[in-house]
Amino acid sequence: MITAAYKKNTRIFAGYDVEPIKIAGIVEESIVDGPGVRFVLFTQGCPHNCEGCHNKEAQDFNGGITADIYKTAEKIIKSHAERLTFSGGEPFCQAEQLAKIARLVREFKDVEIITYTGYLLEELFEAAGRDNGIKELLTETNYLVDGKFDINKKNPDWFYRGSSNQRIFDITCYPNSTRARLIEKREEL
Question: Of the four, 54, 110, 150, 157, which is 20 to 30 A from 166 by CA?
Fold first, then answer.
């Protein structure tokens, strides 16, 4: 971790070429997208089309705005949040970009990362063998919330998930192991 001091109005990453990422939005201080106060980055574009999606406007791959990876990482670094959530849209559609943001942020601050996805953990582990971006994002993720939102299993009391079919895994062991630990109680996060 770099311990260099930086000022709020000073650029941390200067002289880099712009690297785009499509985002639907940012919430700098959320208390509903995982435990604690979190910086939430909502990606743009999702192939799942879940009925009752809480972020329907983030599904269109042509919507949202184009942001710069370095400026986005800098915004996260300068925020007060010590926890980070990648949500969507579908984060794994831009896995390489999100993994890079995570690495840049972690050069300056130790952040816990939760990534929400409509894919199942098992599908992602399999895809990681073919797609290095997916492998990188899994490697940077501490906790993964998997599974498509199912409106028929909607449960507002299901901690940090929208429907009871969705699961939370501790995947900090990845890539050394694929023995992810299922989180069954809020206190385990």
Answer: 110
pLDDT per residue as tens digits for the range 84-97: 999 999 999 999 99
- Report percent pLDDT > 90 for the chain: 84
Judge whether residue 5 has pLDDT over 70.
no
SS3 track for the chain:
CCCCCCCCCCCCCCCCCCCEEEEEEEEEEECCCCCCCEEEEEECCCCCCCCCCCCHHHCCCCCCEEEEHHHHHHHHHHCCCCEEEEECCCHHHHHHHHHHHHHHHHCCCCCEEEEECCCCHHHHHHHHCCCHHHHHHHHHCCEEEECCCCHHHECCCCCCCCECCCEEEECCCCCCCCCCEEECCHHHC
Residue 108 has, within 13 A of its CA and on its CB side, a CA count of 22
The answer to whether 75 touches 26, Cβ cutoff 8 Å, is: yes
* Span 20-188 CATH architecture: Alpha-Beta Barrel (3.20)
Tokens describing residue 82? 């010590």
Measured CA to CA, the distance from residue 185 to residue 189 in angstroms comes to 8
- Global pTM reads 0.93
Question: What is the reported pLDDT for 8?
Answer: 58
